[in-house]
Every structure is written in structure tokens, then in C-alpha cells.
Amino acid sequence: MEAKNDNRTKWLHLRLKPQEQEQIYRHFHQTTCREISDYARKILLQKPVTINHRNQSLDEFMAELITLRKELNSIGNNFNQAVKKLHTLSQLPEFRSWLLTWEMEEKLLQEKVAEIKNRMAKIEAIWLQ
């Protein structure tokens, strides 16, 4: 039995204006095709082309989550530093100073947690529409 040769041996050349080429490449970059020749072949043969679709609300959601994570990390680091300081205190004036710092950090933490809850509620409301 002979093996069937599926190699593409025929060439098709096109001349395009720069604007046409730019438009074709812009559409090509929105697809899952890895090569421009694959994209052109599918279009010319009227085969289906899978287009990538970016969900803008999901992108915004991810940006919000990244911001919230950074804020929580910085607050957590500050809190850890305050607790380490507590373990090293040996005199009452140092303890009072630490207590004031801790109260400010706790207030900031409570505010950020409330802000995170509000943002999450807004995102949830948008997401569930």
C-alpha cells in the first residue's frame, strides 16, 4: 500500500495594500491560528476560524483582585512586624508606644477589610447581572 502524501505543494501569491495587510494581521492576531498561512487557508476555503474573546469585566475583576491582594499583603507585613516588636519589648514605655502603633494598624486593617467587602459586593452584583 502506498502512503498518501498530504503535503501542500502549490503556492498562492497575493499583492496587498499596506492597509489591507494590517487589517488581515489584526484579524489574524484575534484568532487561535498559529501561522498566517493557516489563517488565510481557513478564510479562503470558508472553514471555521476560532476567535479569542476577552471578557473585559473579567479583566477588570482580576485587576481589582490583584490590587486587593497587594493591599492585604502590605497590611499583613505591617501586622507581623508589630507582633515581632511586641515579643522584644521589655519596658512599659515601649509597650505603650507599641500599643498605639498596633491600634492604628488595627484600624487600618478594619478599614481595608471593609473596603474589600464593599468592592467584592460590587463585583458580585456586576457579575451576577
Structural key phrases:
70% helix; elongated; MobC_2; Plasmid mobilization relaxosome protein MobC; 4 helices; 129 residues; 2 domains
Can you offer a commentary on this structure?
- The chain has 129 residues and is an all-alpha fold.
- The protein contains four helices and no strands.
- Helix 3 (56-88) packs antiparallel against helix 4 (92-127).
- The radius of gyration is 29 Å and the shape is elongated.
- The termini are far apart.
- Strand proportion, as a percent range, falls in under 5%
What is the percent of helical residues?
Answer: 55-70%
Tell how many strands the DSSP assignment holds. Answer: 0
Spatial extent as radius of gyration: 29 Å
Q: In angstroms, what separates the terminal alpha carbons?
A: 60 Å
Class by alpha and beta content: mainly alpha
Count of separate structural domains: 2
Q: What spatial form do the alpha-carbon principal axes imply?
A: elongated
Largest sheet: none
Number of helices, counting only DSSP H or I runs of 4 residues or more: 4
Low-confidence stretches: none
Reading the helices and strands in chain order gives HHHH
The pLDDT mean sits at 80
